[in-house]
Amino acid sequence: METMQTIKRQDSSYTINDAMGVLFSKLDEAIDDMENGRVISEEELWAEIDAI
Length: 52
Description:
By secondary structure, the chain is mainly alpha-helical. It has three helices and no strands.
């Protein structure tokens, strides 16, 4: 949610371009994490989900 707050406008409205910007920035982060080996296994992922 912090990303959405950084692009929040004075009138509190968002456009499709705002949403796509957030989506692409998160995708870029995920690709960088994958390239740098900062990923978790499927088992670790399910363990985290189960903990929630």
